[in-house]
Amino acid sequence: ATVAMTPNTAHCVPAFVSKLWTLVEAPSTNDLICWSQDGCSFLVQDEQRFSKEVLPLYFKHSNMTSFVRQLNMYGFHKVVHMDAGLPKADSQVNCVEFQHENFQRAQPHLLGLIRRKVKLISVIIMQYIIMLVQKQSTHTQLLTLRFSHAEMCV
Amino acid sequence: ATVAMTPNTAHCVPAFVSKLWTLVEAPSTNDLICWSQDGCSFLVQDEQRFSKEVLPLYFKHSNMTSFVRQLNMYGFHKVVHMDAGLPKADSQVNCVEFQHENFQRAQPHLLGLIRRKVKLISVIIMQYIIMLVQKQSTHTQLLTLRFSHAEMCV
Amino acid sequence: ATVAMTPNTAHCVPAFVSKLWTLVEAPSTNDLICWSQDGCSFLVQDEQRFSKEVLPLYFKHSNMTSFVRQLNMYGFHKVVHMDAGLPKADSQVNCVEFQHENFQRAQPHLLGLIRRKVKLISVIIMQYIIMLVQKQSTHTQLLTLRFSHAEMCV
DNA sequence: GCCGTTCTAGAATATTCGATT
DNA sequence: TAATCGAATATTCTAGAACGG
């Protein structure tokens, strides 16, 4: 099953999300990427084979890190397992799980709610402050300038 | 019994606490770590075997001191026994007991209340700044208000 | 060849850097990690095998991403190849290269100059604020006190 | 101009070591 | 002395930044 990728003004599904859905649904690659049992997350069974064999079929790269960067950019979160990082038994080797509240099996109508992240205003402000800081030669100058009593009292 | 460990949500159980609960509950290691009789604390019966055999199954180390550091970081306290410091009878050798008001047998719903100690004040300040930010409608307004106009124009 | 890891007052080599040097020098793993031809950088030939077979021998993990995070933390930079991102010929598959001006073949005396990155000035300022905060009893006091000229001039 | 890819950094927890009480 | 904590590095997950399409 695939999902429309064309921009439908209001509720279009981003290209990445659409590809991801197709990827998880595809029976041919279910041994490498598939839904979790309850359908609320998806699993990558063998990170190494997945990145080299499956990713280039959908994206312009074969790096797990780029795939994860996109997942985070769209608000997905890694599901942490109890045995994370421990020397693994063969049965449990290399299982990665990601989740997003609007990415669920049999719920394609939710996909349009998944949005790419943009910068927060707070981040923009902090960056502005840091830029100012870097232009100052001494700490005292900077600190005197920045936080004055009157400004901080709401 | 296991406890959900998903990060980044509001009321999730920290990974360490989740692992600890699993560890104490696990029947297979009840001879080394188990609940106390009243279920209000847990006991480590043989520190040496526990650290070498059980810890590496859940953590990236096999040191009792690292385990204790984490316990203290999450607000657990050692329960001091009356015979502490005395030459120990064989029956009492190597018994360590730790306690936390929200870590009790058959009360997993309390685990979410166990919090890692952090420098909370920094968070409070950041939230305060963010709150200030969110009260402003435009960037220019905000910047003018917070930090004097002259300073922000680089 | 190994490098002393003991803190020698002034110019001790950080544990990570020492391990990295040992790792690159070790003849037994030269097929997976070795010096570049000119000795000014090092190469990881097969990222997948390297991460699973070599990393756990030196670190508490087997993730390339954790290794790269440390490299960046110590000021190493990835050397970008011209064929990055292209469909790779078999001979060139999976070759990763990193470089640091003080990490060179036959120059172990430079290793002490490699330093872990520390927090940015903005963070230091925040911590200073926190220290001030902890001296105050109430929020109102704190906010007024915090950002006044006199307090911030160290 | 937004999205995708890559390299690097931020932020929180984890581990170690030594100081404090 | 024993229990707790501070601080530095280590590991993990997520985000910033630069660049190109």
Report what the structure shows.
Three copies of one chain form a homotrimer. With 154 residues, chain A is of the alpha+beta class. Chain A has two domains: 15-113, Arc Repressor Mutant, subunit A; 121-152, no CATH class. Helix content of chain A is 39%, strand content 8%. A four-stranded antiparallel beta sheet of chain A has the order 1-2-4-3, covered by helices on one side. In chain A, strand 1 (33-35) and strand 2 (41-44) form a beta hairpin. The longest helix of chain A is centred in the C-terminal third of the chain and has 15 residues, at 121-135. Mean pLDDT of chain A is 77; it is low at 5-10 and 133-154. Chains in contact: A-B, A-C, B-C. The interface between A and B is medium-sized, with 25 and 30 residues. Chain A binds a DNA duplex (21 and 21 nucleotides) through helix 3 and strand 3.
Supply the key terms.
Arc Repressor Mutant, subunit A; 154 residues; globular; DNA-binding; 4-stranded antiparallel sheet; alpha+beta
Summarize it:
The first copy, chain A, has helices at 15-25, 47-58, 64-73, 121-135, 139-146, 149-152; strands spanning 33-35, 41-44, 77-78, 96-99. Chain A contains 6 helices and 4 strands, in the order H-E-E-H-H-E-E-H-H-H.
SSE arrangement:
The structure is a homotrimer of 154-residue chains.
Chain A: H1 15-25, E1 33-35, E2 41-44, H2 47-58, H3 64-73, E3 77-78, E4 96-99, H4 121-135, H5 139-146, H6 149-152
The first copy, chain A, binds a DNA duplex (21 and 21 nucleotides) through residues 14-16, 59-61, 63, 65-66, 68-70, 72-73, 77-78, 80, 84-85, 116-117, 119, 123, 127.
